[in-house]
Write a structure and sequence with these properties.
- The chain is an all-alpha fold.
- Among the domains are: 101 residues, no CATH class; 87 residues, no CATH class.
- It is rod-shaped and about 95 Å long.
- The protein starts with 5 loop residues before the first helix and ends with a helix.
- The model has no long low-confidence stretch (mean pLDDT 90).
Length: 307
């Protein structure tokens, strides 16, 4: 078979391509395969596709790969999928990209995943997205993540979210952050939370802000807490409020404190009350002062007397 020219093979293909044994298929050169017509390429059985060597698959043109049926695509062995170039993957049709099995997606190398366009990433099914290995997720560029569809972003598993780098999380748009599920938000590592900009935090949805764990709240920097709107501060749960570090409480503006809800003002721990600056206390409204608990008032008076 390897000695036949593409012209001679054309007669063989037309006669009965499916009559060729898997051994004969595997013996074809990349040049011979490149000369096969689309019709005959699509006539290959799944067994014949499985028989293709890594070199043969790697030698297929993007046009040839896109002409394969979805059933044929799913028959390509995982080791052969891993040998495809980024150019081949970039040129594959959406239908065939979506036809990849989870095993084939797992087989994709870090370089292959990093080479996918935002359009290709968004065209993947949610099941395929969840099959991408965590090391490959960590290799995605901020541009790729920024362009991924909401559905596929929400499909990321908690392990994949944990795998995101600080730069990737910091590069997410406010829309993307708000589109995350509360479970995904809670999976963001504390070091990544600390890298969010004040703009990102300001634009995050109330539901996702309230989803932050106490560890994540503790991880917030002084600048991040100082940048929260009064609405955001009031939307925090009492448990979250109590997790704000004392140095961050001391950095709140009088405007922020004046607009905080009564429930959250009363949730301040004695350590947080003690951390309030003279200017902050002086800026509290009579209504705010009246809403403080007796324990908070006693501790505040004692601290103010010391000063």
């Amino acid at each position: 078979m390897a000695a036949l020219t593409t012209t001679q093979l054309a007669g063989v293909w037309t006669a009965n391509v499916q009559a060729l044994t898997t051994a004969q298929i595997a013996a074809l050169t990349t040049t011979q395969l490149a000369g096969i017509s689309t019709t005959n390429l699509q006539a290959l059985t799944t067994s014949q596709v499985v028989a293709l060597t890594t070199a043969q698959v790697a030698g297929l043109t993007t046009s040839a790969l896109s002409s394969l049926t979805t059933t044929q695509v799913q028959a390509i062995e995982t080791r052969d999928v891993a040998a495809l170039t980024t150019t081949q993957l970039a040129g594959i049709s959406t239908a065939n990209l979506q036809a990849l099995t989870t095993s084939q997606v797992v087989a994709l190398t870090t370089a292959q995943v990093a080479g996918l366009t935002t359009s290709a990433l968004s065209s993947l099914t949610t099941t395929q997205v969840q099959a991408i290995e965590t090391r490959d997720v960590a290799a995605l560029t901020t541009t790729q993540l920024a362009g991924i569809s909401t559905a596929n972003l929400q499909a990321l598993t908690t392990s994949q979210v944990v795998a995101l780098t600080t730069a990737q999380v910091a590069g997410l748009t406010t829309s993307a952050l708000s589109g995350l599920t509360t479970t995904q938000v809670q999976a963001i590592e504390t070091r990544d939370v600390a890298a969010l900009t004040t703009t990102q935090l300001a634009g995050i949805s109330t539901a996702n802000l309230q989803a932050l764990t106490t560890s994540q709240v503790v991880a917030l920097t002084t600048a991040q807490v100082a940048g929260l709107t009064t609405s955001a501060l009031s939307s925090l749960t009492t448990t979250q409020v109590q997790a704000i570090e004392t140095r961050d409480v001391a950095a709140l503006t009088t405007t922020q404190l004046a607009g905080i809800s009564t429930a959250n003002l009363q949730a301040l721990t004695t350590s947080q009350v003690v951390a309030l600056t003279t200017a902050q206390v002086a800026g509290l409204t009579t209504s705010a002062l009246s809403s403080l608990t007796t324990t908070q008032v006693r501790r505040l008076k004692r601290e103010m007397w010391r000063r």
